[in-house]
């Protein structure tokens, strides 16, 4: 059995399970960002980088890599003020579930709606949280992705 959390910020977070923690501002996913991600990951599939070919393809334009959208969760969670800023160490602990539901066309805006699903003490100074991240696409009925992210908050 784990001892109670020592940090009052972590202890308060346990009371927010089931609640929405925040919504990030809209973030532009433009072709330059998509291209930069393609360069970093060496994923140059035409759907992402060939604007002319993609215009005639199934989505009518290039689309962001699913993993680019997923990689932006950390930034969007921070921008949504979904995680306590007074905790000195925040560690990406992994993902429980990710589903890519809709393509993000180049020059679309996305945002993250963050809900706290679970908060489990790992020690008196560590709290493992699970957040549901629903990445919405401005003007689109379906989200780009839904991901359950695990984050370890360490107050020591």
List key phrases describing it.
single chain, 156 residues, alpha+beta, Thiol Ester Dehydrase, Chain A, 6-stranded antiparallel sheet, 6 helices, 6 strands
Task: Characterize the structure shown.
By secondary structure, the protein is an alpha+beta fold. The chain has a domain at 8-27 and 66-154: Thiol Ester Dehydrase, Chain A (Roll), CATH 3.10.129.10. It is 26% helix and 37% strand. It contains six helices and six strands; from the N terminus they run αββαααααββββ. It has helices at residues 8-14, 31-41, 46-49, 51-55, 66-71, 73-79, and strands at 20-23, 27-29, 89-100, 108-123, 126-137, 145-154. Strands 1, 2, 3, 4, 5 and 6 form a six-stranded antiparallel sheet that branches. A hairpin with a 2-residue loop joins strand 4 (108-123) and strand 5.
Briefly note the structural class of the backbone.
alpha+beta
Q: Identify the CATH homologous superfamily of the domain at 8-27 and 66-154.
A: Hotdog Thioesterase
Number of beta-strand segments: 6
Oligomer kind: single chain
CATH-defined architecture of the domain at 8-27 and 66-154: Roll
CATH topology of the domain at 8-27 and 66-154: Thiol Ester Dehydrase, Chain A
Q: What's the order of the H and E elements?
A: HEEHHHHHEEEE
β-strand percent reads 35-45%
Largest sheet: 6 strands, antiparallel
Shape: elongated
Number of helices: 6
Q: Please bin the fraction of helical residues.
A: 25-40%
CATH class of the domain at 8-27 and 66-154: Alpha Beta
What is the average of the pLDDT values?
A: 95
Q: Stretches where pLDDT falls below 50 for ≥5 residues?
A: none
What is the C-alpha radius of gyration, as a whole number of Å?
Answer: 18 Å
Q: What is the straight-line distance between the termini?
A: 20 Å
